[in-house]
Amino acid sequence: MSRIGAMGMLSALLMTGCLRPAENRAVRDSKVGRAEGGGLSLEVEDGLAAVRSVGSGEVMLWGNAPVFTARATLSADATSNWVLTVRNAMPGAELLAELEDGEVLAVEPVPQVLPTVKAWRVGLRPGAVARLRVAPPGWDSTAPFRFAALADVQEALPRVGDIYARLSKDDSLRFILFSGDLTENGTREQLLEFQERLEAGSPIPLYATLGNHETFSKDAEEYTTLVGRGSQSFVFQGVRFTVVDSSNGTLDPIVEEQLEGWLAASRQGTHIVAMHVPPQDPVGLRGGGFANRGESAGLVGKFAREGVDLTLYGHIHSYYSFTNAGIPAFISGGGGAIPETFDGVGRHYLAVDIGANEGLREASLVRVD
Amino acid sequence: MLSAQSPRSRPLALALVGAFLVLPGRALAQDPEPLSAFELLARSPQLGGSDIPRDLPGRATVGAPRRPRAPDDSLPMPDLGMQSPLPAPELRAMSSGPFRSEGEPVGAEAASPEVTAEGSAADVPMGMPSPLSPHGVPSSPLSPVPASTTALLDSSRSFQVVPAAVAVVPGLLFHGLAPALAGDGHTAKRLFALEGTGLGLIALGGVPIALTGASRRTIAPLYAVTLAGFSVFGISAIANLYSVVSPTFDPGVPASSLPPVEFEMGYQYVSDTSFAYDHFVSLGALARFDEVKLEAIARLAPDEGNTQVRLGGAYRLLGEPERNRAGSDGSSLDAELYGLFHRFPTEGFTVVGGDVGFRGRYAMSRVSPSLAGSFAEASIGMALQGYSYPGPVSDGNLHSQLLFSFGYGVWLGRGGGPFKGEAMLFYDHRKDGFAGGIRGLGGGVVGNFGLRTRALLTETWGVAAEFQAGGALVGRLSLVYALGGES
After folding, report:
1. How many CB pairs under 8 A join A and B?
2. Tell me, what's the pLDDT at B394?
3. Domain A29-135 has CATH 3.30.420
């Protein structure tokens, strides 16, 4: 009897796993940006940065948004001298450290060679809570700006430098929004190599969501550790960017609930939503979109009702321009993974001009090869 | 092969032939050449002419098949041993099992119209060595089947645990291994050939898909070939299991006639984390005419309001009509046309579309006698659907979809009594149903799997049930009311 019960439990778990394959990642997302060490308890708001290390007076973060705030609680017996290093930061990023009562703490920049690596010496106060905000100047303006949309590097990682070199020629690009499949298998080694190549070749940071290839290795545990959340939302210069984990061809209910909050928060503003697997493949016979067409139709309908201005996708290794529920949509999977042949595109990225007040101004295809 | 009722469909028959190329035809079973009683007997199982453990519900077979039974001493059994009128090479050519020199379809003779019409093959004890048969003369050069072979053949006609276990592991990878272990070399060769064909088609379609990056220019035909490969591979995998498990029961036969009108009412439950609905009322109506079948299906969620309606029908291009398929083995090809209306009130959109495609069913007894009672089914088509968003959304979407399904089924019922029906394990590639596709590592590429069964328990009442597992779990149980009854 107990064996039958165990089998039943196992079956139920398997079924649940099949029905919600992204649930573990959604739960794991909530822990991103939290760490303790050396008497410091750190919590990055909304998980917009991954804590790579903390302790012995040093904190290292991997930023996954141009602007983020961390809450640092220092124990009474901890050292007050800390060095905060942020990798994948905006080139002009600055640190603002202040206590809860508004007192601004002393911050001293530490020069770095790489443009996207920033470090500061900051004197935290033992026994107090400090807010650390990392942001470039003008982050809260509503000025229009340009960013690059890219996806699907995968096995072309050794050649990704070509893309960064092309990106470097456009000084107006502020950051790269990456829609998944950074690597072929999502292993720790591959992700570290991706980040090293990014820092070495790109003058601007890359903010990403994961793709299905990242889930091939331990259900994207390494991605969560090294990069950050699969689903998150941030605002830059009045434009909201939301990325969601669609790597299993679905959105987990936890993510969907978060998404509804982000949609509601920017109902009147400019909002860009990006994910890896597109809800709807423009080539219907191929069916490279969501696993359930009803779910995809419901999702893009929700985007339309909530006033989303632009949707960006990956997964399909080519360039597509189409609409979903009336919203402009682009697939820019030109990172170099096995390219779609006969499309005349090749490696590419999308340069998107957008503004908080103007909405989507222009999206241009930029060829790399 | 072709139905005389659809002469206009001859061109489409060519398409069927192409689709069925991977499955060898029952050529000998269709041999119109009249045989003498002596020849018939010479081709009987006692002389190794077949390894059929029982009668076949083949095209020419009408009525219930018979199980192998012990030798009946009252039956006259001529002593053919060393005095067979057939020359030795011919006899050898008709020998069966793994020791056949050529890959001719064994058992086809027993399924021929002549044999079944006269009851010869069915009435004689099959699978049991006769004291007067050559089996008892192992050293005879004319003996079509060596004694060792006989033992294997005889053993293949009863259930064996080891082949059944092997059919699962590693049989799911090596199709044909289980019947080979059971001594059924003919079936083993056919299943290995099917598996090879399936893998070949997968490579034929899959490799170019990978090399072209699933190009929009070539994806449709390549996808169809790849899915066809998976269907052949899947069918041979299940046939592998069926061939060694089937001795435990009498094979079912297709109903000789299905009711002209059926109504269906039941309950459907859907477990999908992406939708608010769960409970549905399931309604259906089916009308069968000579070559045309009309169908209406509705699924209604009373509390949530989700409503799905499918209306359409099928035209029989090949095979006997379901209203009168006496003498048919159930093989058929239909052209299908369906319309779809699906309203999602909570999610705020409506789908209107149409499906067009072909659906074929193939009696597996044509592949091997030991697969009698089972059938393979496959369908291919295309859907075109429009998504509309009432309210503030300014634009909708128009989408196409590749439709593909395959399954392996068994006929329920043995010919006597009102109990008739069928059950089928299937894969369905479509992503717009309640089950959707599997939410897997590759996104939403794979469709859903399921088990569907329908059976009339009396002349007028029956049940239909279905379970599907994709991105959602779907279960349905319905009561069937038939007007006109089944025979």
Report:
1. 197
2. 66
3. no
